[in-house]
Design goal:
The complex is a heterodimer of chains A (about 475) and B (about 900). Chain A has one domain: Alkaline Phosphatase, subunit A (3-Layer(aba) Sandwich). Chain A has 13 helices and 18 strands. Helix content of chain A is about 30%, strand content about 15%. Helix content of chain B is about 35%, strand content about 15%. Chain B has 30 helices and 20 strands. In chain B, helix 12 runs antiparallel to helix 17. The relative contact order of chain B is 0.08. The N terminus of chain B is likely disordered. Classes of the chains: A alpha/beta (about 475), B alpha+beta (about 900). Chains A and B meet through helix 1, helix 8 and helix 9 of A and helix 2, helix 5, helix 23, helix 24 and helix 27 of B.
């Protein structure tokens, strides 16, 4: 849309990028720093301008489908027939310690079937996703640190369970900028409110605030409700652009006598971005512009809408889109797992399936990394009744950080591939284990970064997403 | 007591967690490489050795003479092959070679090859220098210094530090410490900021509002005359600190720490309101305005029921500090935990809550200490049916606490006494509290000059508010992992100073404000960029953005609308009419904090917040561009200015004066003047409202136009109608809602949705009309613009699609959506949903849905040029930042 608006003119905001780099101490490493400085010499001076990664990579953008609460691996992508044999019995070797007391083996109520040329089994919860299984790498050997939501959410998003650290989306936007200056670079959508830990999940931490995720409540439909204050119903746009022109002059004059202040520059940039967001956002978030057959393929409901929005956003160059299943922790089925998992999966299976095919058909899947999973998985054994926890029912599963499943597709990932394995009951990852840090290292590699040298200097330290951990899981890369 | 001896328990062997903490501490001191190597050791090598090697190559057995349980032995190696590890050279290291499982070489461990990541970890460990932590010898338990925490800086008694011999005789001690440290880096302080800057800085720091213009002018005059600014500035500080707005500003800082909110959070169907919460907020304001000594301030918040004035509900409200937390579905253990947390982090910077389930991993806080405090609160109840619901009283018979093993209330461990924290007790032997619950004794232990933490934490908090950053970076964690402050002696000096000055916060604030350090210029110091990029050394004053409260209050102030009453019930500031009270009186709903607060980095009402984030996001700018409250502010300024000014030049002068509190420069004058001209010529192209109107009018007999269009007068219950009641005496049932409406009588009273184009464009329409009722004769829906009928659809007891291709509209021209009742107006509820697409130069620029564009507000004329100019100035960085 910006090319249709030459008369408003896009700003050439003065920004001493070299100063920002040194002041903020951006430690992208020699190559990237040199690249940024070269951009500087060309007069390009916006921290969100697109730039190359450390090395060539296929994946350019990410869609992260976050099933917050923790989907059960043995009911989705990690079949464990042995649970049937031990149904109602204690599993040999005993249960691993999780958040709450657990009991005997709880077989999956869902049938698995093999799909695609790869023949990878997928449960009846995800038949549409399964149709694209040959594009998917299933990681069955994920593990995290603790069986609690809050630290696990932060670990999955920020690589650190407790302290304030930038999220993966912020890191990638910092490293790559974004291809569309009129939309937020990093969007986090959740219908109906926030997940647990709220906006910390998409925090910029110590990175500049411009790299923070922009939260959108997709339960709302009117644009003005999707993004508060996105419209001015009093000042027409042409008049607002005159306001912005004057504002620019006044701010530049103010800034001229206060050089090298990243805060002033960030504020100026945020005004520009806000102005452009008003029109670009309206168009990008309007899924009714999609042809009927596309809308039908994604289906109805808020998840279909937000997943289709995600495709529209990545198509327009948004770097990182995170989609949460809902406020709180919908997948946290300590009880009634069969009913609830079925209902939750039904909400997202069709649209995710449609997304994978749609991206592929548009040639976008190659450069779009799609990630699916929760903050951890669930126990293969039943959760025992606990006051105030599971309504006294004995038909759910507890949190499980010892072993769980995630999958990735597109973006240079090896399709039709199963990586790693849990034990024979699906409790603990035992083979080719992939820690969350390893997953992060791999995602960064797919995006063109070496997780050990992709750093940011803060408080005297070069920080990494993976801190001092992480090993790239090479077999996942095509 | 002595029945239960409280000792800080430590595992006999160093645990991985403690070791990791030690590693972290070392690392933070900068030895990154060694650190990484140690970490690799912990992550890969130690588990490998323990699990797979030491059984055969350890203290008991040494197969092939190989022993792997100490660095010394690994480096020494065997007579056969020499060193088993060559630091820095993995390929030459025998240990790695055997792990590789080459077919023609020894393969270790014999059972199976290790996973690649483990081998890779060993490789990287060797490559990084094969660091082997001294404490990690195997076989013999390394002695761990369980008393190491005793030498942690924050646990040392506060005393006046030795002052460096540096600078002039009359230098402010703060300046001596700061400039001495700067000099160690070969740097000097920045010069003083100018008078105007200092007056603005002082005003925002003390009362959180921009200064009065008169004070700015006075200081400028003094400066121009070459006078000494100091007496004026000091008097100005005193004046501001004496104003009631000071208490309001600094109360909000304390409310961040106290996780203040007006609601309880999620409590099922119980009333969520804390009706008396504001009484606690007002108590804090009054206490700060009265400069209540900080020790008393704390004691009253913990045990006002046991102090003089305990018969005064206003004094008892102090205990809202403890009682106003989240209710956690009224789970008593969690409520008490929240109180322990706000109390210990809030006053002493200790994370005691970590000891709920296990001894604190890092700090000397055993679970016994946690449950002793638990016992204090468990022995205190909230009385029912009191005038103030905020207070606590001791139970007649205190409850003796038990440790809940791993935090489980059903899992009772040892009984413990109610006592103060072990680490802060004489001889590390806390004595049981003697009186009632022990809450007053606890308060006295905290609010004591002998407590090494309380005063340090307090002065650091004040420092943060005045400089944007603390001398200690983790203001609510002064535990053993907290590195030394940036200026340790200064912290101690300030803490001692506070104690020596009767814990007067007002005095301490002024003491800091009069320093050169605080009055330095914020101008960039490029030469410091490499040496001190974060300005820890304070070679200049940091420039700061106004926080949410100051920004909103400043808007109210410069528009002359700020209400200055102190105290009273909270008000909703997110919805019209918004309110003009200071932002600290905003109602804070803990469960559903409105986005406005989050967008502007407001403190989380769920957690004690020692420091706010300062993000810059486009949502803030969207609010500033588009929110109605901001527009109203600009409008109010414009009205006042226009009443005074005659010419544009005068207008510009006055708008700058009001908002930026100065005259415009010549450049700015010219820009503003051009702006007003351009804007007016833009506006003259089409006056009148632009956008959506919800009205009524008479449809011409040929359905080609609407005569006498007027907006419907009343909006209620989601619909526009002729009056407060339907049917209206004049307009009858004529009304509009988001999905459709109801017709009026005949062609004369047709409901009309009107859109007025804000520029030349084309629109296309598609949608559906529906008349659900079987009764009556249905309705007709017409699209009309510029005297042309673009379509009429009749519908009765059914639905019908409609579409209109490309209607050309010029700026200011309207398109009307009119519905008439046919012969009868009975049963004429209709639905009319449509999408209007707007094209400019053939390009789709906007999609408007009828449901989305329906609103309880009629489109209005664009704000006049002066209002828009005022709006721009409210958005400037100059307005938003303080140098």
């Amino acid at each position: 849309m910006n090319e249709n608006e030459p008369k408003y003119g896009l700003p050439q905001v003065a920004m001493d990028r070299r100063d920002m780099l040194t002041r903020c101490g951006m430690g992208l490493g020699g190559l990237a720093l040199g690249q940024l400085l070269a951009e500087d010499a060309r007069g390009e001076s916006n921290p969100l301008l697109p730039r190359g990664a450390q090395f060539p990579a296929k994946a350019k953008r990410v869609i992260h489908l976050f099933c917050n609460g923790g989907p059960s691996q043995v009911d989705t992508f990690d079949p464990k027939p042995l649970l049937q044999k031990y149904a109602g019995k204690t599993i040999p070797g005993g249960n691993l310690k999780t958040e709450r007391p657990t009991g005997s083996a709880l077989p999956s109520p869902f049938r698995f079937r093999q799909y695609g040329e790869s023949g990878i089994p997928v449960s009846e919860l995800f038949p549409h996703v399964a149709e694209s299984i040959d594009d998917i790498a299933v990681i069955r050997s994920m593990h995290a640190n603790v069986p609690n939501h809050e630290p696990s959410l932060l670990l999955m998003n920020c690589g650190e369970a407790r302290l304030v650290r930038p999220s993966l989306g912020s890191w990638l936007t910092y490293g790559l900028g974004t291809d569309n200056q009129n939309l937020p670079a990093f969007v986090s959508m959740c219908p109906g409110g926030y997940p647990i830990q709220e906006s910390q999940n998409w925090q910029a931490g110590f990175l500049p605030g411009i790299f923070q995720g922009t939260y959108i409540d997709t339960k709302k439909t009117a644009l003005n409700e999707l993004i508060e204050n996105v419209r001015n119903d009093r000042i027409p746009r042409r008049q607002q652009s005159l306001q912005l022109n004057l504002l620019r002059k006044l701010n530049q004059r103010h800034q001229a006598s206060r050089p090298h202040d990243g805060q002033l520059e960030s504020r100026i940039q945020s005004l520009e971005l806000a102005f452009r967001m008003q029109t670009e956002a309206a168009e990008a978030f309007d899924v009714s512009r999609e042809p009927r057959h596309i809308q039908e393929a994604y289906g109805d409901g808020v998840h279909a809408r937000q997943i289709l929005m995600a495709r529209r956003l990545v198509e327009r160059g948004v770097r990182y889109v995170q989609l949460w299943h809902g406020a709180g922790q919908p997948w946290d089925n300590h009880d009634d797992l069969e009913v609830r998992h079925r209902a939750l999966a039904r909400e997202i299976d069709q649209p995710i399936g449609a997304l994978l095919k749609d991206l592929k058909q548009r040639g976008l899947l190659e450069e779009t990394l799609v990630i699916w999973g929760g903050e951890f998985g669930r126990t293969p054994v039943v959760e025992m009744p606990k006051k105030g926890a599971n309504a006294g029912k004995i038909n759910g599963r507890d949190h499980n950080h010892w072993g769980f499943t995630m999958w990735m597709a597109g973006g240079g990932v090896k399709g039709g591939y199963v990586h790693g394995a849990t034990d024979e009951f699906g409790f603990r990852a035992v083979e080719d284990k992939v820690h969350v840090h390893d997953l992060h290292a791999t995602i960064l590699k797919l995006m063109g970064f070496d997780h050990e040298t992709f750093t940011y200097r803060y408080a005297g330290r070069d920080f990494r997403l993976t801190d001092v951990h992480g090993t790239v899981v090479e077999p996942l890369i095509a | 007591m002595n029945a239960v001896r409280i000792a800080v328990r430590r595992p006999p062997v160093v645990s991985a967690m403690v070791l990791a903490a030690l590693l972290l501490a070392v690392w933070q001191q900068g030895a990154a490489a060694a650190d990484q190597s140690q970490d690799l050791f912990e992550r890969h090598v130690r588990p490998l050795l323990a699990e797979h090697c030491l059984a055969c190559h350890g203290p008991k057995q040494q197969e092939a003479d190989v022993r792997l349980d100490s660095r010394q032995q690994v480096l020494a190696g065997t007579a056969d092959v020499g060193a088993l590890v060559v630091p820095g050279n993995p390929d030459a290291s025998r240990l790695l070679q055997v792990l590789l499982y080459s077919e023609d070489d020894t393969q270790m461990p014999p059972k199976a090859k290790l996973p690649a990541p483990v081998i890779d970890g060993v490789r990287r460990w060797i490559a990084s220098g094969a660091h082997w932590p001294e404490a990690a010898e195997f076989g013999q338990a390394a002695a761990v210094d369980t008393d190491a925490w005793k030498s942690h800086w924050a646990f040392q008694p506060i005393q006046e530090p030795e002052r460096p011999v540096f600078g002039g005789e009359h230098w402010h001690p703060i300046d001596v410490f700061i400039r001495h440290r700067l000099a160690a880096d070969g740097a000097a302080a920045a010069p003083l900021a100018d008078g105007r800057t200092l007056v603005r800085r002082i005003s925002l720091a003390t009362v959180g509002l921009p200064p009065a213009r008169a004070d700015l002018e006075q200081v400028s005059q003094l400066e121009a005359d070459g006078g000494d600014l100091t007496p004026f500035l000091h008097a100005y500080m005193d004046r501001q600190l004496a104003s009631p707005q000071y208490g309001e500003r600094w109360a909000r800082y304390w409310l961040d720490i106290a996780r203040y909110a007006d609601t309880k959070g999620y409590v099922f169907r119980e009333d969520r309101e804390y009706k008396d919460a504001f009484r606690y907020r007002d108590w804090v304001i009054n206490a700060i305005n009265a400069d209540m000594p900080y020790d008393e301030f704390l004691k009253r918040q913990i045990a006002a029921d046991q102090l003089p004035g305990s018969d005064d509900p206003a004094q008892l409200a102090a205990m809202g500090f403890l009682t106003l937390g989240r209710r956690f579905l009224n789970n008593r253990h969690d409520i008490i935990d929240d109180r322990i947390d706000v109390l210990t982090r809030g006053t002493m910077g200790l994370t005691v809550s970590c000891a709920r389930c296990h001894d604190h991993k890092f700090d000397p806080i055993p679970t016994a200490d946690y449950y002793s405090l638990y016992g204090v609160f468990d022995s205190s109840d909230e009385p029912k049916n009191e005038p103030s619901t905020l207070r606590l009283v001791d139970r007649a018979k205190p409850r003796e606490p038990f440790i809940f093993v791993r935090g489980g209330a059903g899992n009772r461990g040892d009984q413990v006494s109610r006592h103060f924290l072990t680490a802060l007790s004489d001889g590390y032997e806390p004595q049981p509290f003697q009186h009632g619950s022990g809450r007053l004794e606890l308060a006295e232990k905290i609010a004591s000059a002998d407590n090494p933490l309380t005063a340090r934490v307090a002065v650091n908090r004040i420092w943060i508010r005045l400089f944007g950053r603390g001398l200690v970076d983790s203001p609510s964690d002064f535990g053993v992992r907290t590195p030394l402050p940036s200026h340790p002696e200064l912290l101690d000096h300030l803490a001692q100073w506070l104690i020596d000055h009767n814990w007067s916060r007002k005095a301490l604030i002024k003491y800091i404000l009069v320093s050169h350090t605080w009055q330095q210029s914020s101008a960039d110091r490029p030469e410091m960029a490499d040496r001190d990029p974060e300005n820890r050394l304070l070679a200049r004053m940091p420039r700061r953005r106004l926080d949410f409260e100051s920004f909103r209050d400043a808007m109210l102030q410069v528009s002359g609308r700020l209400e200055v009453t102190v105290g009273g019930p909270s008000v909703d500031i997110t919805k019209p009419p918004y309110g003009t009270r200071r932002t600290l009186y905003a109602r804070i709903d803990r469960q559903n904090l409105p986005n406005l607060f989050r967008t502007f980095d407001f403190a989380s009402p769920d957690n004690h917040s020692p420091q706010r984030f300062e993000t810059t996001v486009p949502q803030q700018a969207l609010y500033q561009f588009n929110n109605d409250f901001v527009l109203q502010t600009a409008k109010s300024i414009a009205q006042q200015v226009s009443a005074e000014a005659g010419t544009d030049a005068e207008t510009i002068q006055l708008v700058f004066g009001r908002i930026l509190q100065r005259s415009p420069t010549d450049d700015e004058r010219a820009w503003a003047s051009d702006y007003l001209d351009t804007l007016r010529s833009e506006q003259s192209a089409h006056s009148g409202p632009l956008g959506w109107l919800f009205g009524w009018g008479e449809l011409s007999a040929d359905f080609s136009g609407v005569a006498g269009f007027q907006p419907l007068p009343t909006f209620a219950d989601g619909r526009w109608g002729g009056g407060p009641k339907l049917p209206d005496p004049q307009l009858g049932w004529c009304m509009l809602n988001s999905s459709g409406g109801h017709t009026g009588h005949g062609l004369k009273f047709c409901p009309v949705r009107r859109w007025v184009a804000d520029g030349d464009c084309e629109v296309s329409l598609s949608g559906q009309v529906e008349h659900p009722a079987a009764e009556g004769d249905g309705v007709r829906c017409h699209v009309v613009a510029g005297g042309v009928n673009y379509g009429t659809v009749a519908v009765h007891n059914g639905r019908s699609p409609f579409a209109v291709e490309r209607v050309r509209l010029s700026a200011g021209q309207s398109i009307d959506f009119v519905t008439d009742c046919r012969a009868s107006e009975s049963h004429d509820s209709f639905r009319w949903k449509f999408v209007m697409r707007k094209y400019v130069d053939g390009q789709l620029v906007e999609t408007m849905k009828s449901e989305d564009t329906f609103s309880g507000r009629q489109a209005g004329s664009a704000p006049d040029a002066v209002q828009q100019l005022a709006h721009v100035l409210l958005l400037t960085n100059e307005f938003l930042f303080v140098d």
